[in-house]
Design a protein that fits this description.
two-stranded antiparallel sheet; Serine Threonine Protein Phosphatase 5, Tetratricopeptide repeat; mainly alpha
């Protein structure tokens, strides 16, 4: 199932070392589009990500296990990702696709910014400038969280990614990666400059554009991962999340109770999940992807999947909010799960990601697949604020946020308390791959006190892992908190075989940059001997 490349805008001349740059630039004088104020809005649509890392992050994370050979992988890419191997695959959902498409989107943003800078009255396009800056920041953030280490105290020496602020005009440019600290400073600068310029009234379909609330949600996620020694980043998480959620966020959260009344078969629940009318969705992104097949109710990609064993850490887990039950009437969660019916089930799915297919040749029956990704939601933003409160030891406000999440996501009416959270996680042993629990050892670069603070962090990580399942965000938690991930092979006889592990110091946590980029001379990510 090969993808068709449908991104053909003629004015973007950047691929950061990938093949085809020279041929493309040879055609520019005759085929490029002249950019004017009138078509800047159209160009900005291309400044949003054309690839999302859902498959990469889920395959790399602890949400996936391996199953016997009679189940097939979707393709070589899925196998390479699960095995944490430096893949040479370049189809959609691959590291190469993310790299190239993010830089294409950055080039579109830079084209708009260049246009505005050369206008007689740049202030007339403040809204477009703000949106372009947000898009440039977000694409670089996706690149940094994929191809770099987590932001830690060594960021000033860790490798970053090229931060593109100018239009590329040469055939064979030379790029330096710089440091991760430099990358994050540049993201922050674009973010802070862009937010005040945004104007929601300019958008006809605001859920697919950076509104103020979407930008605030991005800022909160950015600062959650931009860890500072003095914990000042958490103040900013709280500030930006509160701009969206306010002091009483319950009215802005997703109606999980209603979602749970919909069928788990077909696209019913996924279509509702990404409904543009849903106030919980702050930014939706439509991209080419086959993640909906791999992660969906299809006999595809079953070799490496979110199956029954790991589901008892996620969407079938017990928590301080209550217990999972296979009978929907007795289940603590409003939403049920879908599972295939093979003798050894390999897929236990929360129905949130639909696979759509657009036919480009009716006769041949060919086309390309795509998904709609809920990139930012109020639910995830709430748990980001809860984490920030916990790191600041403001447990009263953290409990308020966790109880708002519990009230929306579960049927439980008994409030969470410090005591109930401590009792639940203190009673658990730490996870091992053959005796799994939802409590995993944390090895972050920053301090987390044993006792209440650690247990509260376990609680928020547990809640976010359940709620954002299949969306890739678990990988950011794993990197930020130094959680060890194991590769487990589920045997037919029920035994679990551990085949590999990735601890907090494993250099494979920074996914390797594309081989074409390395061949062009860019410094690769180092690897353990």
């Amino acid at each position: 199932m090969k993808n068709k490349n449908i991104f053909t805008i003629g004015l973007i001349g950047i691929s950061i070392g990938l093949s085809g740059c020279s041929d493309f630039l040879d055609e520019m004088p005759d085929s490029r589009t002249e950019i004017t104020e009138e078509n800047a809005d159209y160009l900005l649509v291309s400044a949003y990500p054309l690839t999302v890392p859902c498959e990469m992050y889920e395959m790399y994370s602890d949400n996936t296990d391996a199953y016997p050979d009679r189940f097939a992988a979707m393709d070589r890419l899925q196998e390479d990702l699960y095995r944490w191997e430096d893949t040479s695959q370049n189809d959609q959902d691959s590291p190469a696709a993310l790299w190239e498409n993010c830089y294409k989107s950055i080039a579109a943003a830079n084209q708009v910014l260049n246009l505005i800078d050369n206008m007689e009255d740049p202030s007339s396009m403040d809204a477009q400038k703000g949106e372009a800056l947000l898009c440039r920041a977000y694409n670089h953030f996706l690149l940094a969280t994929t191809f770099c280490k987590a932001y830690t105290s060594t960021a000033s020496t860790d490798l970053g990614i090229p931060y593109m602020k100018e239009l590329e005009t040469t055939v064979s440019p030379s790029y330096e990666r710089g440091t991760l600290a430099d990358t994050y400073k540049n993201i922050e600068a674009d973010l802070l400059e862009g937010i005040p310029l945004l104007d929601d009234s300019k958008y006809s379909v605001p859920k697919y554009r950076f509104t103020r609330n979407a930008a605030y949600a991005f800022a909160a996620r950015f600062y959650l991962n931009y860890t500072q020694a003095d914990l000042s980043n958490y103040d900013k998480v709280i500030e930006y999340a509160t701009r969206v959620l306010g002091a009483n966020p319950s009215n802005s959260l997703r109606n999980w109770e209603y979602l749970g009344t919909l069928s788990v078969n077909g696209e019913v629940q996924p279509n509702e999940y990404v409904n543009v009318e849903n106030s919980a969705n702050l930014l939706l992104i439509s991209v080419q992807s086959y993640w909906g097949y791999i992660n969906g109710p299809y006999g595809l990609g079953e070799r490496y999947a979110h199956g029954p064993v790991v589901s008892y850490e996620t969407n079938r887990s017990n928590g301080p909010w209550g217990s999972f039950n296979a009978n929907p009437d007795n289940n603590v969660y409003y939403t049920d799960v879908w599972s295939n019916s093979s003798a050894l089930p390999t897929k236990v799915i929360s129905m949130k990601v639909a696979q759509y297919f657009q036919i480009t040749d009716v006769v041949a029956g060919t086309g390309y697949g795509y998904i709609v990704n809920a990139a930012f939601t109020t639910d995830e933003l709430l748990l980001s604020r809860a984490e920030a409160y916990i790191m600041k030891k403001d447990y009263a406000n953290a409990l308020n946020d966790l109880n708002n999440w519990q009230g929306a996501y579960t049927k439980t009416t008994t409030p969470l308390t410090e005591t109930s959270i401590n009792d639940f996680y203190n009673a658990l042993s730490y996870y091992t791959p053959t005796s799994p629990t939802v409590k995993k050892e944390l090895h972050p670069d920053f301090a987390v006190e044993q006792g209440t603070q650690e247990n509260m962090i376990h609680c928020v990580l547990h809640a976010r892992r359940i709620m954002t399942l299949h969306e890739g965000l678990r990988w950011l938690d794993i990197k930020r908190f130094g959680i060890t991930v194991y590769r487990r092979f589920m045997r037919d006889d029920g035994r679990v075989e551990v085949t590999d592990q990735m601890d907090a110091s494993d250099l494979r946590r920074a996914i390797q940059i594309p081989s074409d980029v390395i061949s062009a001379g860019m410094e690769p990510n180092p690897r353990n001997n």
